[in-house]
């Protein structure tokens, strides 16, 4: 279950083939978090990711219109996502939610919750 239309579209987008250095987005209920792929298994079924530093650069306050500047955070914990039977990458340990969109880096905070 997803809490926003954009997240629902992203969650149902076929993932790109992951490569080291590629953009990624962790899709939550209605928020999104920017990541960078730091490792890919030879089979491509397991990826390693680190959350990026996302700095808000707009002046829109508590608004849906949000712009961010991204930079790698080499101090961030390395997380693992696996390709599931449904064709989606999900963070290890998640049975629902936690979908990783490959090929797009996006940060979004939903102020309505």
Q: Report on the biggest sheet.
A: 6 strands, antiparallel, barrel
Query: What is the 3D form?
Result: globular
End-to-end span in angstroms? 16 Å
Low-confidence stretches: none
Helix tally equals 1
Helicity range: under 10%
Mean pLDDT: 89
The SS-based structural class is mainly beta
* Strand neighbour order, sheet with most strands: 1-2-3-6-7-8
Integer-rounded radius of gyration: 14 Å
Number of strands: 8
Strand content: 35-45%
SSE sequence, one letter per element: HEEEEEEEE
Task: Give the helix/strand layout.
Layout: H1 5-11, E1 23-27, E2 32-40, E3 46-51, E4 53-56, E5 68-71, E6 78-83, E7 89-91, E8 99-102
Antiparallel strand pairs: 1-2, 1-8, 2-3, 3-6, 4-5, 6-7, 7-8
Features:
113 residues, mainly beta, six-stranded antiparallel barrel, two-stranded antiparallel sheet, 1 helix, 8 strands
Entry summary:
With 113 residues, the protein is mainly beta.
Structure notes:
- By secondary structure, the protein is mainly beta.
- It is built from one helix and eight strands, in the order αββββββββ.
- It has one helix at residues 5-11, and strands at 23-27, 32-40, 46-51, 53-56, 68-71, 78-83, 89-91, 99-102.
- The strands form two sheets. It has a six-stranded antiparallel β-barrel with strand order 1-2-3-6-7-8.
- The longest helix is centred in the N-terminal third of the chain and has 7 residues, at 5-11.
- The radius of gyration is 14 Å and the shape is globular.
- The mean pLDDT is 89.
